[in-house]
Amino acid sequence: MKALYPGSFDPLTLGHLDLIERAARLFDGLVVAVLQNPSKNPTFPVERRLDQIRTATAHLPQVEVTSFDGLTVAFAQACGAGVILRGLRAMSDFEFELQIAHTNKSLAPGLETLFMATATAHSFLSSSVVKEVARFGGPVGHMVPQGVAQDLAAFFNRASPEQR
Ligand code: ADP
After folding, report:
1. Which atom of ligand 1 is nearest to the CA of 123?
2. 5: closest CA among 61, 53, 58, 56?
3. Which of 35, 112, 151, 152 can bridge 134 by disulfide, Cβ–Cβ 3.0-4.6 Å?
4. 89: which residues sit within 8 A by CB, 6+ positions away?
5. Which positions ≥6 away from 79 have C-beta within 8 Å?
6. From CA 60, how far away is CA 77, in angstroms rounded?
7. Which of 16, 97, 133 has most ligand 1 atoms within 8 Å of its beta carbon, as the pocket-test mutant?
């Protein structure tokens, strides 16, 4: 079976990557899809985020990286995925994710949503926390793939401490 892992990935973190690596072992194919969400004001353009994910998942041949807009269920059906994958870090993620899962079920009864628990080591990670640390010049090398750390340093216009 093929799974779809949709998200903003603005930017990709090691938490996302851990989930992708584990899911790639569970499914025949995994589509990681960046949602082009006009209501969010992204830090990185979609093309940059696609590059970041493609570089970080280059060792996973069963992973396909793309972007989409519109309804997640429609995109899942279009790419032949039977499962929508989402990550759960804490109870605070649960309520929102459950609401989305029920909504998606009502729209596309044949699709399943699967939640994977985040790796304990990465359970504190979110794209916004990473950006907050990078903004003030803190080290993010243990939070994001190397290419993303470089992009963050460039975006916030300062050399990361690892590079200094
Ligand atoms: P969205 O805007 O769709 O929530 P995100 O990029 O924030 O996009 O998250 C995409 C998915 O990855 C969500 O299911 C989220 O719960 C999950 N996720 C976010 N951070 C982590 C992490 N540290 N570990 C595992 N999963 C995560």
Report:
1. 23
2. 53
3. 152
4. 15, 118, 123, 124, 125, 126
5. 2, 4, 31, 33, 66
6. 23
7. 16
Residue-wise pLDDT for 73-122, tens only, equals 999 999 999 999 999 988 788 999 999 999 999 999 999 999 999 999 99
Residue 102, number of CB atoms within 10 A of its CB: 11
Residues with C-beta less than 6 Å from any ligand 1 atom: 7-9, 13, 15-16, 19, 86-87, 89, 93, 118, 122, 125-127
Contact 53, 32 (CB under 8 A): yes
11: cis peptide before it, omega within 30°?
yes
Residue positions counted in the chain: 164
The mean of the pLDDT values for the chain is: 93
